[in-house]
Amino acid sequence: MRIALADRQIYVEGRRLHVSPKFFQLYCRLALERAQGRLEFLALREIHRLPAWSRGSLASVGKEVSRHARRMRAAGWDLLESPPRKATHLVRLQPRVVQVEFDRPLAEVRAWLGLDLRAAGGDPHQAERAFELAAALAAARAALERGALHQARAALARAEQAGPDDVRDRVLVALWWSRLLDREGHDAEALARASEAEALCAASGVDHLTCARVQIWIGHLGWRSGRANLLAAARAHYRCAQDLLGAAPHFAELAEIAIGLGHVARLERDWPSATAYLRGALRYATADGWAWGIQAAAYYLGLVCAEHAEHVEDPGSRSRLYREARDWAERCIRLAGEAGVDAATAEAESLLADLRAKLGQPVSPGPVGEHNRRRSVVPSVRP
């Protein structure tokens, strides 16, 4: 089962399951249990606490779920199960649904369902607001991934209207505003919102993973500026993120840190360190199964080899570096086709054309040298 929180879609064995928003919440709640390795039945009172289910009575929940399960079985979707002896106050996904995949981290799914807020003693109205906020943030993230900046701005405006009271939610809103402003080219405003998120983290004990992501983003803004005096600050932010993550296996975040440190070393023309960091990023992204990070790391490794070659006097060594850069660019493009991601395809194709020209090889039509003007277009962190 694959659930896309941003698009409100559920797929089972490649087939799309069409359900109402109310039952989408139900499936998300049950799938969350399965994704965490739990096969136990869930009490319907837990379903009743979901934002879209809390308005009706607890008794009506069992009747609605039972009717829905019968209709789905008649349509060939046998996904829900209650225990024998008519214990209809319990429900779970069928045991055959072994693998569950969300398009968002499980912590975001929990927040979207309002579970963390209820655990802290929130009422149903607060849970509904938490639901609206999480939905708006998910929509903003999806819009940024598509490059739909106007839609991202509208979603973030809805997030602010939801009135985030929790400090962590205020951090996330500020962070996503910073990312949007960066995409729009408003550098100073992007840094200001990121600094706001950092100050909130420092003042109120937000969880370490969220604080680490803020530090990673500020490091990204630092090296992207291209200013030498900010490179040391960027490195310090990445080191702080590493300390916050500790020994936890957050491989995607570790890949982002390694890519960022690779850029800092690249801008300082420390080619061996840049290569080592980016190879580390490739290992982390591979361990996480993060196709975007794998492709981006491959592109940046090619870029580092190409830039290193420009500073090498020996023709043989320069040619070797160009060939290595070409191989990385080709790998990046191949990965795009295999995984269906587009982190750096245009940049890699341009870099590849430039390298083939330098190596005296046939060049397919393309903007040779364009990568020199676009080398900072590909963000080193996920949108």
Description:
Helix 9 (187-204) packs antiparallel against helix 10 and helix 14 (291-309) runs antiparallel to helix 15 (315-339). The protein has 17 helices and seven strands. Helices cover 66% and strands 5% of the residues. The model is unreliable at 118-122 and 366-383 (pLDDT under 50). With 383 residues, it is mainly alpha-helical. The radius of gyration is 24 Å and the shape is globular.
Give a brief description:
It is built from 17 helices and seven strands.
Low-confidence parts: 118-122, 366-383
**Fraction of residues in H or I helices:** 55-70%
Order of helices and strands: EEEHEHHEEEHHHHHHHHHHHHHH
Kindly, what is the distance between the CA atoms of the first and last residues, rounded to a whole number of angstroms? 25 Å
Spatial arrangement of strands, main beta sheet: 3-2-1-7
Shape: globular
**Mean pLDDT level:** 83
Helix tally equals: 17
What is the number of beta strands? Answer: 7
Radius of gyration: 24 Å
